[in-house]
Design goal:
Elements: E1 12-18, E2 22-23, E3 27-28, E4 34-35, E5 41-48, E6 52-59, E7 63-64, E8 88-96, E9 109-115, E10 125-126, E11 130-131, E12 134-135, E13 138-139, E14 145-152
Antiparallel strand pairs: 1-2, 1-3, 1-5, 4-14, 6-7, 6-8, 8-13, 9-10, 9-14, 11-12
């Protein structure tokens, strides 16, 4: 039976870089969203306090960029996802639980995005799961993302 005395609740911290407002302050869980008005997101960084996270983005010019695991705007190769130029239209996130630290409980990344000009968010995506309501990523090809919401559940 896992010990609960050393159990850590995982927290996800994330931030975005937008075309016109640059790097915005980080957000924890769903305390707020990452984004600014209708400004296109060109970079995303994600970090966790326990476990591991990997993520990648798709840009409006039609390609998935490589997976990254870092959480640092100063590390162009692995610190964040995005190319600092092209708007991001989709994001794929996968959270790996460290069950020895979470008291044996598994968590998933739960995330959703809002497309440019839209009034509401698209449905939640869990990790990179695929089913009748999920296609493995959040977003829609060709529509820039302007807001991002995330948590671990």
């Amino acid at each position: 039976k896992p010990s609960t005395s050393n159990t850590i609740t995982p927290v996800i911290t994330y931030g975005v870089k937008t075309k016109n407002h640059g790097i915005l302050p980080d957000v924890k869980n769903r305390e707020d969203f990452a984004g600014w008005g209708n400004d296109e997101i060109i970079g995303v960084k994600i970090g966790v306090n326990v476990g591991a996270i990997k993520y990648r983005v798709h840009t409006v010019n039609g390609k998935w960029l490589g997976w990254v695991t870092g959480n640092n705007w100063n590390d162009y190769n692995n610190g964040y996802a995005g190319d600092d130029v092209n708007a991001i239209d989709a994001i794929e996130v996968y959270y790996e639980t460290n069950i020895s630290k979470t008291g044996g409980k598994y968590y998933r990344a739960k995330y959703q995005v809002k497309g440019k000009g839209m009034k509401s968010y698209w449905d939640n995506q869990y990790d990179n799961e695929k089913d009748k309501n999920q296609d493995g990523y959040a977003g829609a090809f060709g529509i820039p993302i302007v807001e991002l919401l995330m948590s671990l559940e």
